[in-house]
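ok trying this again, last paste got cut off
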Amino acid sequence: MKNYTTWDAIGDMVVIYLIVVVISMLVATVIRGIVIVLSRQAAKAEALAPAKAPVLASTAQPTITGIPQEHIAAISAAVAMMMGAHRIVHIEMANRGFGWTAEARTTHHTSHAPRGSH
């Protein structure tokens, strides 16, 4: 009768690792196939859709105060270049809006304070 040695255990771990790698690659391939099929369907639906009227520059655009229009144009161009046609929905200063989160966090942490006697 053969003893189960450390080298046998390491060999079994390598085999299991390789099986997991193969299964992961198969799952990734299936997901990639699904993405390709769905993108082709979206392209077909877009081609069949009636052409949209171009948006005129004279339509009412929300005015954002405090942020130069050149910055918004540069951000929009960068997003369009990297991700395709997208709209920026909201821009605000980064240091805004932390007060309510800090207050909620404090309230949550103090709710765990031990009480007197039960």
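PB: full thing came through this time. The CA atoms of residues 54 and 85 lie 14 Å apart.
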